[in-house]
Write a structure and sequence with these properties.
TIM Barrel, globular
């Protein structure tokens, strides 16, 4: 269970680019993945929240897994989001990702009924038994209805060596800081990422490993520059980048759903793509798109 050494840093949860009819736009998505790689992104997550994992059937997810692994071709890490409400499909996609050559699976906590710690333990045991590659936990309480607490994560890591990291999407750095403090005695190499773009610096200060965040889709070079500067001790440059990212956070509030906003930002930066997201949804308007284009000028 060896994760690539370059896991730390900036991971992009890629948008899922579709055509107007809802089919996957492999040509446009391939160009986007290439851009992320050449910009220096340390890993790409397919079918995270921004990737609309909740909206695509298993057969499409398996085809996309093959596509992403082949397109990236070892140039950076590829993670596959395997979360879902159907446990059979979660296990099947976990096994598929392992065989397809993905570097890890990312598993959002079980959701909808506000699951208990006991149910989370059972859920992650099921996933770990199905994989031959590392598992990264994904904590997103506002969406799942449960919190993977620092104490619970420490228990999971102790029980399952397959679990090597977590994306902690909690809008307070103290939660992530406590997560780091709880899991490092169990596994000193355990990776803790923030799910919020603007928390890169406090995450690093707390001993964390970086971010898995949406604006990397639109400004991957900026995030790469910030990360490289921080690692080299050039804190002035890293802080300058962080200030720009802080301003870019306003993009998330432009649309009815943040997924639309990020798609709009990618369209503004990379050229024409469909910004449609899966229904039920309010689609991005032209006025919102113009607002996003203005906000990108930092």
């Amino acid at each position: 269970m060896n994760m690539n050494k370059n896991l730390d840093g900036v991971i992009c949860p890629s948008i899922t680019i579709t055509k107007e009819n809802g089919d996957i736009d492999y040509e446009a998505w391939g160009r986007h993945l290439d851009h992320l790689v050449t910009a220096g992104i340390d890993g790409i997550l397919i079918f995270g929240s921004i990737g609309e994992f909740y909206a695509f059937p298993l057969d499409v997810k398996e085809k996309v897994t093959d596509f992403a692994v082949k397109r990236v071709a070892g140039r950076t890490n590829v993670f596959i989001g395997v979360g879902g409400t159907n446990p059979d499909e979660v296990v099947e996609l976990t096994r598929y990702a392992s065989k397809a050559g993905a570097d890890a699976v990312v598993a959002v906590a079980p959701y909808y009924f506000g699951p208990s710690d006991a149910s989370a333990k059972d859920y992650y045991a099921m996933i770990c038994e199905a994989t031959s590659i590392p598992v990264i936990l994904y904590n997103f309480p506002p969406r799942t209805g449960m919190d993977l607490s620092p104490a619970l994560v420490a228990e999971l890591v102790k029980a399952h060596p397959e679990i090597v990291g977590i994306k902690d999407t909690v809008d307070t750095i103290s939660h992530t800081r406590k997560m780091i403090a709880a899991v490092r005695p169990v596994n000193p190499d355990f990776r803790v990422f923030s799910g919020f773009d603007e928390y890169y610096t406090p995450n690093r200060i707390a001993g964390g490993n970086g971010v898995i965040c949406g604006l990397t889709n639109a400004k991957p070079e900026l995030f790469h520059k910030m990360n490289e500067a921080y690692l080299s001790g050039d804190y002035a440059t890293s802080l300058e980048c962080a200030k720009k990212i802080n301003k870019l956070m306003a993009i998330y509030d432009t649309a009815d759903l943040f997924v639309s906003a990020i798609k709009g930002a990618v369209k503004a930066e990379e050229g024409p793509i469909s910004t449609d997201i899966r229904r039920p949804a309010v689609q991005l308007t032209e006025q919102q798109f113009e607002q996003i284009k203005q906000l990108l000028n930092v």
